[in-house]
Amino acid sequence: MFPSKPLIKWLIISLVILGLSSITPGIRVVSFSAALVAAFVLGLINLIIRPIILLFTLPINILTLGLFTFVINASLILLTARLVSGFTVKNFWWALILSLIISIVNSSMSHKKL
Q1: Which of 14, 16, 86, 105 would disulfide-bridge 39, Cβ 3.0–4.6 Å?
Q2: Rounded to an integer, what distance in angstroms lies between the CA atom of residue 72 and that of residue 113?
Q3: What residues are paired with 88 via a beta bridge?
Q4: How many whole angstroms separate alpha carbon 39 and alpha carbon 18?
Q5: pLDDT interval class at 4 (50, 70, 90)
């Protein structure tokens, strides 16, 4: 039986987090299991908290033509780093870079049939 789409996306995002931690000095993951937990927690945060924040920040998001969403995504990554031991992000700019790369990967996954 082939794994479901959410499971594949979870594994791919985990690999992205792990891969970026090996090539960037501002993102650290101690193990693959920490990357799996970080991707899972980030998914839960994006599922529960992100829509509420987007609703409250709608006026500024409209004013910035949606660019404020990147700030929100980076902030949620920093929150994930605080919640998950073994996953650290040095500062906001590294979180923004990770956010951009995860957004690109998610976008490419949504355009392909997994």
Answers
A1: 14
A2: 28
A3: 28
A4: 10
A5: confident
Number of domains in the chain: 1
Measured CA to CA in angstroms, residue 9 lies from 12, 25, 26, 32, 54 at distances of 5, 25, 23, 15, 23
Angle between the N-to-C axes of helices 68-83 and 32-56, in degrees from 0 to 180, rounded to the nearest 10? 140
Residue 12 predicted with pLDDT over 70: yes
Q: C-alpha 105: how far from its chain's center?
A: 10
pLDDT in tens, 29-88: 999 999 999 999 999 999 999 999 999 999 999 999 999 999 999 999 999 999 999 999
Q: Are 53 and 99 a contacting pair, CB within 8 Å?
A: no
Judged by DSSP in three states, 48 sits in helix
Domain that holds residue 54: 5-111
72-104: b or e for each residue (b if 16 or more CB lie within 10 Å)?
bbbbbbbbbbeebeebbbeeeebbbbbbebbee
